[in-house]
## 1
Amino acid sequence: MNTRSDLAFVFPGQGSQKVGMLAEFYQAEALVREHFAKASDVLGFDLWQLVSEGPDERLNLTENTQPALLTSSVSLYQLWLQRGGAIPALLAGHSLGEWSALVCAGVLRFEDAVNLVRLRGRYMQEAVPQGVGAMAAVIGLEDSAIVSICAESAGDQVVSAVNFNSPGQVVIAGHKEAVERASTALSSAGAKRVLPLPVSAPFHTSLMKPAAERLATDMAAVPFADPGIPVVHNVSADIEGSGEKIRQLMIEQIYSPVRWVDCIQRLSGRATTAVECGPGKVLAGLIKRINKDLVVGTLDSEGSFQSSLGL
């Protein structure tokens, strides 16, 4: 199977899930059904039933969302290869999506990753009690202004920029009161909008360090191989060739900002086409705002899958 030197794959994170995702692929493709069956065996419940029937509240629980998205993305990647799609030369994933990228790069076994992301979600939710943390999206303000206003607004609490998603779109997170203080200050400083996000845990802040420590213990028992395909990492926006160093990056990723703009710029140095491998089109939209020259495809429907095979 040929590697295509100008092709990158990107894998979505939380927020791309929805009840009913991948239904047409599940009905038509044994390979997709097999992946959901394997994940269900690891999790101890019927993951496909949850994905196909909901309810939303249960699918949106972080410890369920993470394995559901990982299983969706990995099965679509395997389907891409089965249908004759080229092996991409580079991979990247947004937050949770980086775990999907690592499976597709051969760093982790699929079943090991399903278990680890279920625990990752659980530990992240448990690190901060319900209602104590918050996240908000900031639209239309310079990154540097957001970083400095968060620092000024923190006081004895935590609020920081955690997702640099695209030029003019940054997510902040931390203690609920600190996020509210920063949101008010950001609006006064000229942000076009500051939108509270329907997420209860302040992901990618220092408040997640207890979750990282717990997950590190579970990860110690799981082999991390050197990648067969280079992965651009959220923490460094760079490529790492050592499985053991990737293990450390994935621990740090839980409490470090997602440098998505930098990751896409790194990909753009080598790739001219980027395909979003998972449900939804969130990353495709962000990529178009980061680099208009990249050709972007998605795999979230049969029609878009066929179009992307032709890119």
## 2
Amino acid sequence: MTSFGDTEIHFGDEHRALRERLEAFVEREIEPIAVTEEDRPDQAFDAYLVLLGDEGLFAEMVTAPYGRGRERLDLRSICLIREVLAAGSGLADLVFVMQGLGSYALRHGGSEALKGDWLPRVVRGDAVAALALTEELAGSDVSALATTAVADGDAYVLNGEKWFISNAGRATFYTTFATVNPAEGRKGITCFFVEAERPGCDVVRLMATLAPHPLGVVRFTNCRVPREHMLGGEGDGFRLAMETLDTFRATVGAAAVGMAARALREAISFARERKQFGRALSEFQITQAALADMAVEVDAARLLVYRAACARDRGAQRVTLEASMAKLFATEAAQRVVDRALQIHGGRGLLRGSITERLYRDVRALRIYEGTSEIQKLVIASQLLRE
């Protein structure tokens, strides 16, 4: 049985300085935009892209020699950024993390020419990245994807559709997964770098009903992609996809922690100010019990998230178990915490534009993307049963 108590969670001076700088940055730059992002999502997206690029945050998503100069991503830094950004704006958090999700396979499977051309643009925010993996009938079951890539001379011809793709319609390029041999299942999955402007690559925007999330269907119709735009070799796609998710899964938990912690702060502040029956809500034991439960869940989620991040930063090649535990618990706990915060606010929590109402909409997607809660349970069980 795995020992769960042997990973010390450590933050260096650089992490503490990063958090302090980020909190000031979010309060000063992000939150004023967040109050209008639902009405003007495209303008907010563009503003966040510039702000995050100018602040140097995208550089945390790309390793040397293109990013921060590190040979490995510092997952603690990425989690800290997502936690603080998500507390201020779910859309700003999305803009940040997609630069990493969409460029990871390029960094680890692309040619030197391709990396040298595109990764500096990702770091500056001049190029917007997207991960085209999910399909209408292949979500949790990645090996069932039906998009095909057929070799044709000096190119591969892609045909198929990718669904629920974040940044669809806003992306400069799509890191796309297709099969070169459907009969081989996951062994045939191959990854390609596809520029958004390439002929045969088209987007249909989808309406996200809960939060201002750029989402869409990416359609490939006889889309010719040069052989040199293959990331890795034929059949390396499944490995690259799993490495990408394994790397960033714990950071979803970090975003959940940020949203839950913000909801808790809002609930505490409101409970102190709101009077009912001649007393502040905070004086009622039922309110105190709710706040106590919320605080415990936030701290427990944070510990699981940074345990996974620390394990990765200390050299672990895979943190599948730790990352899945962090993602599962943090996102489920955040949903409960935000819901309780809204309940404490009563009718005010339902008002459009209030912080708790925005958090209530933003937090829901975290239990679905990068592996649903149900899939996380299967992953955790499979890891335990291997031992």
## 3
Amino acid sequence: MTAMSTGMLARTPTRARLGWQRRLRRKLVVLDLVAGLASAVGTVVVRYDGDAASLLGVDYRLWALASGIVWVVIVAASGGYDRRIIGLGTEEFRRIGNAALRMLALLVLAGFAFKADTSRSVVALAVLSMGLLTLFLRWLSRRVLHRERRHGRCMHHVLAVGTAADVRSLVTSLGRSPYAGLQVVAACLSDTGDVPVPVVGSPDDAARVVDEVGADTVAIAGRGGERGDMLRRLGWALEGRNIDLLVAPALTDVAGPRLSVRPIEAVPLLEVDEPTFTGPKRFMKDVFDRVLGSVALVAALLPMLVIGLLVRLTSRGPALYRHTRVGKDGREFTMWKFRSMFEGAALMRAPELNEADGLLFKLRADPRVTPLGRVLRRLSLDELPQLWNVVRGDMSLVGPRPPLPGEVAEYGDDVRRRLLVKPGLTGLWQVSGRSDLPWEDYVRLDLYYVENWSVSLDLIILLRTALAVVRGHGAY
């Protein structure tokens, strides 16, 4: 970001720069209204076999319109249009789920109050379809938003405040996640140092220069928030100016669900909960893995038979390849894959040809891979037999990358934390670049998942995996 481009941002009023945000919220309202209307109309038509019907003397079309409007109101009351959560994480989807529960409770109470002749199953079906359709449309909208942000559009412009090291770290972290929509355009430093954005003053100047640099967000980076008086005065100075104030604590790879604020006599303390490795939540994940894994395995049986036959017909050797991997708590297990290399290729491994860093071995144009194997790898079809590992309990649907015993032997204490959970058929590493990632990013993503996993995060990763497989990026 050059001084010239920063000046151009400054001449654009904040309200005009955030026009995309208002348009996005209006679009979400329309999509939610459509979801409410479509679900209500569809359910009533199915219930009455397509005949025009009335409820309490009112045509079902009016009931559908009323249901759509009420649905939008409930989503709004549940915080579903909060600009701070739109397009980020799982909180947006959780609030839609809360709205669906409230909608269900409202319709059941209305049915009792008006003694409507409608079964509870019909009401439940309407609300379920309404919630699922809304979630699907929100997900599509998020995909469009993230695509825009990858091209630098629909972004919040951030003025970073802190030390040079903390500002550099913040710029790097936000650069890794463009979908978050935060772009640092300038910095106010409490010390001297090189940063990749223009320096426009000290922390005490932040309130004065925020409009000059065209920022709509101020982010206190790391130790920049240690001066409580500065943070308090900055908050006062930004009141009524439509500028967000964010504090990025000096915590790495700790996600929101583990963070909470504990106010103790006007001293807010940021509490970090322990990661969850046992208990009911972990039991639910195991049940989720085995049930969904069993369903996926049954559905994939026929394609797996066809792939196995093709592997046998196109090259010598068995259809399946077994390999020893290390699982939870360091226990070794046999992992299954479709053979994608020529028979005996494992004995031809040449470390000097390795194109990856760290403990990984990757070769983009690996001569040991069969022509069919390249297709299987690009589409991740060679990993379908690992569903059996999931059903057996050796692996999870989502988790860290399953490591080799030789890799584990070289792990340090921090990297060894990857073994606190089961390895995954897919994971953050799979949806963030696959084989294109350097070793440090593999470790960072795996440790982030270990510390912050949740079932909702698993669902998002599974959806993103499907997109990554279709695109075939980073797979070889």
